[in-house]
Here is the input.
Amino acid sequence: MISERNDEIYAVGQLSRIVSPLLAWYAKQARDLPWRRSRDPYAIWVSEIMLQQTRVEAVKPYFTRFMAELPTVKHLAEADETRLLKLWEGLGYYSRARNLKKAALTVMCEYGGRLPRSYDALLLLSGIGSYTAGAVASIAFDIPVPAVDGNVLRIVSRILADDSDIADAKTKRAVTDMLAKIMPQGRAGDFNQALMDLGATVCLPVGKARCEVCPLKSLCEAYLDDIVESFPVKSAKKQRRIEKRTVWLVSCGDRVAIHRREQKGLLAGLWEFPNEEGHRSIKAWREELAERGWHAVSIKSAGEANHIFTHIEWKMKGYWVEVSELIAEWEWVGRDELTDVYPIPTAFKYYQEQVMKKEVQK
Here is the structure.
């Protein structure tokens, strides 16, 4: 939704002027990224899913490892889920990996193992929204459709000095519609990637913008009016819910207890250390173990850790628990298996590191 000052005709006219200087800048300044070294639609798709809510530098090693082990849609469709999630371990938002496999199965069944050369068809695959469909369609197939995310919304809001709320879906639709009118034929992928790079390296969030090196500064109303810091306008996020949790690092000899989460909800289907809501005391848990007929040889603190999800923050207290015999309701694994086999969520990274350190100290 464009403000009165920037009606759509004027806005499209202004945006049309950025195409040539932006593409010229991209030709010289494009980032050298692993997934840009191939026009393979599969590789581009995997990279775009990994890049959702994840920094580029963090994705690079994951992408290289993933593509080495699962180089085609067929390999992905046939991948064992535990192994797939292990490859994804540390990237977070594990539903992305599950949706990748689900979409790969669809591509194998309906498109003969090749991603469809259609924005609308891509949009129907599991885990692919308008941004990812636009990115894959334009970069892999040069289909002239925009890929609009927060970076692009920030750039456009500054170019137009537009105070529309970028958290409002109406604003994203309006920007998408305007960019669709100026997409350069034959350079759609370059144009979208140029906007990605500009937003990632130059037109940065408030307080970090590098306007002095921006190729569009002479066309940017916010820069010319010296009000860059006023854009973009974005409504406040809903405050995260705080959850207290107690994490139990239960060991028996050289084995460590883990269990699998339910197949729905937060961290669905992943392996984790036994844990529960609330902060429990050592005394309370020793009494509970005794009630269940389990003997705790020792219980001691394993430290505190926090982990932030999109809408929830966990404040965790951990305890080492040594038991005299294996407890049937848990899976008991060697420490090497935590590294090589079982996908443990990043939320438990601190405690996984404690487990591995204990192994080294023996």
